[in-house]
UniProtKB/TrEMBL annotation:
This protein's name: Tudor domain-containing protein
Bias type Low complexity, positions: 78-105
Alphabetized UniProt keyword annotations: Signal
Region listing for Disordered, in residue ranges: 78-117
Signal peptide (from-to): 1-18
Domain of life: Bacteria
Originating organism: Hymenobacter taeanensis
Span of domain Tudor: 19-75, 108-165
Keyword Ribonucleoprotein applies: no
């Protein structure tokens, strides 16, 4: 096996076809304020729509790419536009970073007061979760007004305790059990070992690298496996569902939360990771994984 980290963008051409949006489509967009604004699709990629707010007229400085699976774009014909949506959103709201969420994550959860930290441009900011919608959480940042509330994917969030400190686990440096080969069938144990092996390859004790690592899983949920089929997308040609895997490979998606423990010559540190992985057999016939967010 040869695990490696491959940052990929899960292609969403099937979403575009299902919604029927294309360049020039009239839509409504929900910004972080919760109001819907009339907009026009001005460009389309495999996984995102570029939208222009109709209220901005000829000003294109706030045109923004939004992931198709985020769930904040709807046809202008699906619902009557609320009175609050006639204005243009504030610059703060319009600048929200688009974050992908799985199509299945649609049902809203009750309001929450969970304390978290949110990663913004590499910095962690304390916040409170106001509500959840599948893998998305609407958060309110400490010390900021409600205009800066925004939806973020769970991969940008880490949990805090009630007193505001980071959630920790009892570190274990024992590798996940099991011995696997390229012919081993898909299993939770194999996938956990793949994740461990990826982090462990950096543990050599030199300079700034740890002498050993441990991975403690606190959440692990396998989704339905799917075939990496190829679709002929007009203007783009043959397009795979998962760009990092071979055509027609079986993809095993997994959502997981785990803590990576690192031993720096007796000093132990740990960090929480919330992420989605895809596991598959690569072009060389070896099991591997990609970190999808």
């Amino acid at each position: 096996m040869k695990p490696y980290l491959l940052f990929v963008l899960l292609l969403g051409c099937y979403t575009s076809l299902a919604q029927g949006f294309q360049r020039g489509s009239k839509v409504e967009v929900e910004w972080s304020s919760g109001a819907w604004y009339p907009a026009t699709i001005v460009d389309v990629s495999d996984s995102q729509f570029k939208v222009h707010l109709d209220g901005d007229g000829a000003n294109t400085s706030r045109d923004q790419w939004i992931f198709k699976t985020k769930g904040i774009i709807r046809s202008a014909k699906t619902a009557a536009r609320p009175a609050t949506a006639t204005a243009t959103p504030t610059a703060t709201a319009a600048a929200s970073r688009p974050v992908a969420t799985p199509v299945a994550a649609q049902r809203k959860q009750p309001a929450s007061s969970k304390r978290v930290e949110v990663n913004e441009s590499g910095h962690w900011y304390k916040a409170t979760v106001l509500e959840q919608k599948g893998d998305l959480s609407r958060v309110h940042f400490d010390g900021y007004g409600s205009a800066d509330d925004k939806w973020v994917h769970r991969s940008y969030i880490r949990s805090l305790t009630e007193n505001g400190s980071a959630v920790t686990v009892n570190c274990s440096f024992t590798p996940p059990p099991g011995t696997f080969t390229n012919s081993s069938p898909a299993s939770d144990a194999l996938f956990k070992k793949e994740v461990y092996d990826w982090y462990n390859r950096l543990a050599n004790g030199t300079l700034t690298r740890p002498s050993r690592i441990g991975v403690v899983f606190t959440y692990f949920s396998r989704g339905a496996a799917y075939q990496n089929t190829v679709t002929n997308v007009p203007g783009r040609g043959a397009t795979r569902k998962h760009d990092g895997a071979p055509a027609n490979a079986t993809i095993y998606p997994v959502k997981m939360t785990f803590h990576v423990c690192e031993d720096y010559n007796g000093t132990i540190s740990q960090k929480q990771v919330n992420s989605d992985f895809s596991f598959f057999i690569d072009r060389d016939g070896a099991w591997t994984c990609s970190k999808d967010n």
